[in-house]
Design a protein that fits this description.
about 25% helix, 2 helices, about 90 residues, alpha+beta, five-stranded antiparallel β-sheet
Length: about 90
């Protein structure tokens, strides 16, 4: 089974988290709250573990405070990010 690229909040919210590969080959994480906020981060590692990113996103989207939890989960897994859009 392949890795899941997108995650939606299970608690009825419109929160969305996903990761994607850009045409340049870098990995980006996308967050959208379904109303007004959309944020994009670039993963700073050259060869990030897709499984570790997917697990961090799965945990974060299941929480009430998605973005702070995302930061915590990425930090736990030593996945460095840089914000590229808001």
């Amino acid at each position: 089974m392949g890795l899941q690229h997108t995650f939606h909040a299970p608690h009825g919210g419109a929160d969305f988290l996903g990761w994607r590969k850009t045409m340049a080959g870098s990995t980006e994480i996308v967050y959208d709250d379904g109303v007004a906020r959309r944020m994009i981060w670039r993963v700073a590692s050259d060869d990030p573990s897709e499984a570790r990113i997917a697990e961090a996103l799965r945990v974060a989207v299941g929480s009430i405070r998605v973005v702070p939890t995302l930061y915590d989960e990425l930090k736990k897994r030593a996945i460095a990010i840089e914000r590229v859009a808001s």
